[in-house]
Amino acid sequence: MKKLSTLSKIAITGLAGLSFLTACGTKSAEGGSSSNQTINVVSREEGSGTRGAFVELFHVLEKGADGKKVDMTSDKAIVTNSTSVMLTTVSGDANAIGYASLGSLDDSNKILKIDGAEATVDNIKDGTYKISRPFNIVTKSEVSEAAQDFIHFILSADGQAVVEKSGYIPLDNAPTYTAKANSGKVVVAGSSSVTPVMEKLKEAYAKVNAKVTVEVQQSDSSTGIISATEGTADIGMSSRELTDEEKAKGVTPTVIALDGIGVIVNKNNPVSDLTNEQVKEIFTGKTTSWDALSK
């Protein structure tokens, strides 16, 4: 797979115009991509919670001959190492398709309907849009007083109000928050999908308890879980469920929100709706051109 780092955003931006002209083909005057163009699959890196949830929900994860699950993402996929690079990559390529956390999406890309359902909070709540996953914080059985206080805030009515305002689905019946820690520092590390809402939770928390400092370190879900397990972070962030093996190492996940995964294409792409099966075939490399979707 082709790897694309954060530094590549500069190159993407610079080449966006060229990519657009090349990809638009005979429909460039209309601003749409040509239907016979090769689909450019854009995925997240291994270890990403968003990728883990995506391949599970779209059945890109299949059992191999040995009975173990194998990620069948096309080896021709462009691999991005963060949510921001994913969004930039797709917005700069008229024939790209990718995916990202619903709460992280903006108007730079088109969000596709899946099986006729729009990726909205209401549709996730009522089960109409089925591509959703939990946002978890990961901790050992014992955490510092400061970390516990921040967790109490995240799960409180105040914290869940931040979750909802950020575009995610909050928990029901959240309790009132009362500060109990008078000092300390909390290190939170992991998922780039959870990071944006965690940064907002950090800001809101500072207004109600300035005596505790919170540091948020962005990486990916697997790294966040390892950091919590090894004690290099007080709290890990994961945008996927933990495996039994990870739980066996002494950490426990706590759901702090529910999030959808949006499948995205360039704004100039005429496609607006795909089935779950079509998404699977695109990301496994079975469908490689846009015109094949209409056959």
Automatic annotation (TrEMBL):
One of its GO terms (cellular component) is plasma membrane. It is a lipid-anchor. The keyword Lipoprotein applies. Residues 33-157, 177-292 form the PBP domain. GO terms for biological process: phosphate ion transport. The keyword Transmembrane helix does not apply. SUPFAM superfamilies: Periplasmic binding protein-like II (SSF53850). InterPro entries: PBP_domain, Phosphate_ABC_transporter. Pfam families: PBP_like_2. Keywords: Lipoprotein, Palmitate, Phosphate transport, Signal, Transport. It is found in: Cell membrane. Belongs to the PstS family. The complex is composed of two ATP-binding proteins (PstB), two transmembrane proteins (PstC and PstA) and a solute-binding protein (PstS). Part of the ABC transporter complex PstSACB involved in phosphate import. This is Phosphate ABC transporter substrate-binding protein.
